[in-house]
From TrEMBL:
Pfam families: Nop, NOP5NT. This is Nucleolar protein 56. GO terms for molecular function: snoRNA binding. Keywords: Nucleus, Ribosome biogenesis. PROSITE patterns: NOP. Residues 439-562 are annotated as: Disordered. Residues 450-459 have a biased composition (Basic residues). GO terms for biological process: ribosome biogenesis. GO terms for cellular component: box C/D methylation guide snoRNP complex; small-subunit processome. It comes from Olea europaea subsp. europaea.
Amino acid sequence: MALYILYESASGYSLFLGHGLDEIGQNTEAVRGSVADLNRFGKVVKLVAFSPFESALDALNQCNAVSEGQMTDELRNFLELTLPKVKEGKKSKFSLGVAEPKLGSHIFEVTKIPCQSNEFVLELLRGVRLHFDRFIENLKPGDLEKAQLGLGHSYSRAKVKFNVNRVDNMVIQAIFLLDTLDKDINSFSMRVREWYSWHFPELVKIVNDNYLYAKVAKYVEDKSQLSEDHLPGLTDIVGDEDKAKEIIEAAKASMGQDLSPIDLINVKQFAQRVMDLAEYRKKLYDYLVAKMNDIAPNLAALIGEVVGARLISHAGSLTNLAKCPSSTLQILGAEKALFRALKTRGNTPKYGLIFHSSFIGRASTRNKGRMARYLANKCSIASRIDCFLEKNTTAFGEKLREQVEERLDFYDKGVAPRKNLDVMKSAIETVETKDTEMVVDEPATELSSKKSKKKKHKAGAKDDIEPMAEDNLAAVINGDAPEEPKSEKKKKKEKRKLAQEAEEEKNEPMENVNGANGFNAEDGTAKKNKKKKSKDENTEDLPAASEGKKKKKKKSRSEDTD
């Protein structure tokens, strides 16, 4: 049986035919020995056909299909044109060797071409890959390597599909910049205080906040020109009228020296730069909160956005943080203290970056270590949920936060907390209920429109029922029985009966008049039956009366003869 070999290269599909393989008996070791030598391997394997790809995009699509075990239309046409045709009802005298078993099974299902994938075929494909540039004519050196490199890059980019909204590198850069800004703003604010204190030293004790101090220094400028007219502006900046008055009184009796206009301009410009940095720091913090809610919502809900971002940046990424056990996460940020304790055989640290969480600060001194261990356990769970869960939800983080609160109450008051299994079940239920609500809300508009249509239809039916009832009553009064419709729903029948009863109650005096004349206004059919019965009774009484008359006549005749 002939063996054809399908090889998928970066430049196109190629088909090879194995010669003399039956004599070798498909000995893998013999093939391994002949693979390195092109002369020996060229006698065993020969090129039959080659179909190049049209473009780099076509090559990427073909490579993706082969990796998923799917046969494209181009590959099917190539195989049907190059392989010998098999007659119906007869076995094929060849087989096709492929590298991927899934691809072989799909080819056999569609085209009925027998395929095989084993060690022998893989060794032959290894030799084809090694000497492929020798089999293809007019192939320039370096073209195959360029095609492989370009296809490899595009295939990797297509396979590694990152979610743009969940790139944790942005959080790492934002938290680093936030820390740097905090240091810079503090140092610049101290520089503004020292610089302006030469002119107005009493202002440092009155205004403690760095941002407000820069604002006031920019607004006041020269203390000698500060008067009661500046009181509303100072009150808006400081937020307290008494403090604004205190600043004006201190400016009048200040011991600072005067500054030149150029110096005051420089101080004013530097104070403006500090204010801009402080405002940008606020915007950056809002950006960090938004990114943390996208990347690690459960970790942010549990421990806070800033502490969670510090943990992610220290671990390197959210994936690395999810890989860390809770014991490692507990001492992240305290590596120096840990190795120093191991070296000196002292006590190891109980907490690292998670010390900045409010839970450990709320715990007593005796329970800080326990609280750190428990909080690290919950942070590890939350980070793994955020890393591997595709849905963006904070339900798990909120439930884990409730568990930490319960643990604090247990340490302080002795209240037994819930089990982790029950809490996780309730979290999963909340997530499922939210999903169902999302699904229900989507077709809500369609349902409302359908309901409105039904209401309109029912209203139209009611309007039709009333004239029908009036027509029926008129027909009964005239002595004609109304014909009932053949196909009506029960609801319409009940509504019609109600309408008829209402009309009948209105027409009760009419019924009494008709009753005196022998008519019944409730049912016309009953009236006719009564008329027929009365006629039958009258017809039955007629012969009896005639017989009595005859007897009387006979009696009178007999008396006359006597």
